[in-house]
Design brief:
With 286 residues, chain B is α/β, with parallel strands linked by helices. Helices cover 33% and strands 30% of the residues of chain B. The chains are: A mainly alpha (123), B alpha/beta (286), C mainly alpha (224).
């Protein structure tokens, strides 16, 4: 697994780590039960702070991608890939529903909404 | 997580300088960068923690023990690295070590030898013939081989080249693999801290500016660059300080999200480095 | 014990002095044999000067390297640091005596003219008392004002310690009618050496202990 941090990216470093580990799990580079490096050794390898790696792992755990066993370390969680994908899709649908509701209140048409989406997507 | 170091309303007055109500904590297992311009009070604070000078008022707790009441016990567990070498210049490394060793209960010679080898320090050379970098590494070796739980470093890298400073960073990363070790690193070379520090405490003119996680600082501070006609009484108030040139302005904001909303698209908004934050804050007299 | 280690440190940092003082002792015994009664140079002047050398050189090394900062960063009480300095004068004095005895022994064995007698109790008591009194004045001043400003003071102090007893005796012999001196001579002729020596040592120690307490107080309040 490769984790490459960009200092000039808009995304905070912990976010970059979260995304890259998630991708690795989704691509099956990491499989269920694989051990992740400890937060301290990851910090050392990436030359960042321990708090940053901890935050990344906490978010990954919150989203169900990894499990942390106290005293032992973090492992790719048992949830299978499709289930995770479904969960994420459900979250996206929920958020989009909220956006649609707000847009209707502003009298935005579907086309207006699509334009905005197009603009933001390509940003 | 408990606090390995607690400073509360610490006060120390000199004729033309006062350390005023300094309060911050260092959590166990973390690295704290202690930054501020020269003369801001960093060395004074460290000397107070090491009981080299006496506080006027306030509280210092190390490992949960009151200082200076439990000074001797506290110092057993502290490893210190100062900016200047105060060792006996006529002695060599082993002789100096032999002088210091008996004072520490938990001295571990194997660890010392390991560091001497790793740092490639010559055992038989007189200390006065060692380079500044080697002296610093020796200081560090001494600080690390008696199971110290708190490493205090007072400007350890001043006068040392970037290559060496990067080596030191590697060494520190190795040290903190042990989650029981905490580091307080005072410096005005902020690039050293940008990577490893978990927390940053910034003092200026004896007063605390902030003590927060480094991530929080890096994620919220920003440099805003744009043309001067964007500055009016409202927008000026948004900034910590502003530098105006003939060609535009550069300003520091504490709130990048707000700045993006206000200036949307009209300005360049960039991440501020710790050095930027320090320089602009000191200039703005916040 | 930690104090022991501090004393060892004071010796370790001046290994060269071990040699210089030996050389000094050899010369002192020869040069000063004419200054006073037999053995004055060897058994009194020399141990006193050697102790003085060790004390002031230890202190000047500490000062040159600003090692006060390291020493006070170690797990030590300030009082322990002060006590170690005070106790250190005894091993230094003993070293001075050892050199003197060695030189005297060798000198006598070779058959040199000035080495006719071994060290006497009077020598030892006199040296120890003077050294105690010297330190009692030296250390509080050193702890208060530091080594740099002391250099001139050191020399004056040393001269006083050496010259005061002899000029006092001088004055006494020229003024036999002085009541004070009469009382003292009466005392000296009517008490045993043992009493006199014990008294001298006790007086020395009293100065010593009072000075120790003053130094501890000074050092406890010192800022680095």
């Amino acid at each position: 697994m490769n984790i490459i941090i960009s200092n000039s990216s808009q995304d905070p470093i912990y976010q970059q780590i979260v995304i890259q580990i998630k991708t690795a799990i989704m691509n099956e580079e990491l499989s269920r039960g694989d051990a992740l490096p400890s937060i301290r050794s990851l910090a050392k390898e990436l030359l960042i702070s321990v708090i940053t790696t901890k935050r990344a792992y906490e978010e990954l755990e919150r989203e169900g991608f990894i499990e942390t066993v106290p005293g032992k370390g973090s492992y790719v969680s048992g949830q299978n890939k499709d289930l995770i994908r479904e969960k994420r899709l459900a979250t996206i649908e929920k958020k989009l529903t909220e956006v649609i509701t707000d847009s209707k209140l502003l009298n935005l048409s579907l086309e207006d909404l699509q334009n905005i989406l197009r603009l933001l997507y390509t940003e | 997580m408990d606090n390995i170091l607690e400073l509360k309303n610490l006060k120390k007055s000199y004729k033309d300088f006062t350390l005023d109500n300094l309060t911050f904590n260092l959590k166990r297992g973390s690295v704290m960068g202690f930054i501020g311009p020269n003369g801001s009070g960093k060395s004074t604070t460290i000397k107070l923690i090491m009981n080299l000078i006496k506080k006027d008022s306030g509280a210092i707790n190390v490992f949960g023990l009151e200082s200076p009441k439990h000074d001797k016990e506290i110092k057993q567990r502290i490893g210190f690295v100062y900016d200047e070498n105060y060792f006996y210049e006529e002695l060599n490394i082993m002789e100096m070590k032999n002088i210091l060793q008996p004072f520490y209960k938990n001295w571990n010679d194997t660890v010392f030898e390991k560091y001497i080898k790793e740092f490639e320090l010559p055992k038989k050379n007189k200390i006065k013939n060692l380079s500044k970098g080697m002296k610093m590494k020796f200081s560090l070796a001494i600080a690390l081989c008696h199971n110290a739980e708190l490493i205090i470093m007072d400007e350890p890298t001043s006068g040392l080249d970037p290559v060496f400073r990067s080596e030191l960073l590697d060494i520190l990363y190795n040290i903190i693999q042990d989650e029981n070790v905490s580091i307080l690193f005072s410096t005005h070379i902020t690039t050293d801290l940008e990577k490893i520090a978990d927390y940053i405490t910034f003092i200026n003119k004896g007063k605390l500016v902030f003590s927060k996680t480094k991530d929080e600082i890096i994620e919220n501070y920003a440099l805003v660059k744009g043309s001067k006609d964007l500055l009016d009484n409202n927008t000026r108030g948004e900034f910590v300080s502003i530098k105006e040139t003939s060609f535009g302005f550069v300003a520091l904001t504490k709130d990048i999200i707000k700045a993006r909303k206000i200036f949307k698209g009209n300005c360049i908004i960039e991440k501020a480095s710790l050095e930027d934050i320090m320089v602009y804050t000191v200039r703005g007299n916040v | 014990m930690l104090i022991f280690n501090l004393i060892v440190k004071d010796i370790l940092i001046q290994k060269k002095t071990l040699l210089y003082s030996l050389i000094y002792a050899i010369f002192a015994s020869a040069f000063f044999s004419s200054l006073g009664p037999n053995g004055f140079g060897l058994y009194m002047l020399s141990p006193m000067a050697i102790t003085y050398m060790f004390i002031t050189l230890a202190v000047s090394y500490d000062d040159k390297n600003k090692s006060d900062i390291i020493i006070n960063s170690l797990p030590l009480k300030r009082s322990e640091i002060v006590i170690s300095k005070y106790i250190s004068i005894f091993p230094f004095a003993i070293l001075g005596f050892v050199y003197s005895i060695l030189i005297g022994f060798i000198g006598k064995a070779i058959g040199l003219p000035m080495f006719t007698r071994p060290i006497s109790v009077f020598n030892i008591v006199f040296v120890l008392t003077s050294v105690c009194i010297f330190s009692s004045i030296f250390f509080p001043v050193y702890f208060k004002i530091g080594n740099l400003r002391m250099k001139f003071f050191n020399v004056i102090l040393l001269m006083l310690i050496i010259l005061l007893p002899s000029s006092a005796i001088d004055y006494a012999t020229k003024n036999p009618n002085n009541i004070f001196f009469q009382k003292i001579s009466y005392f000296i002729s009517n008490t045993s050496s043992f009493t006199q020596y014990s008294l001298a040592l006790i007086i020395g120690l009293i100065f010593f202990l009072i000075s120790l307490m003053i130094s501890i107080r000074i050092y406890n309040n010192k800022e680095f």
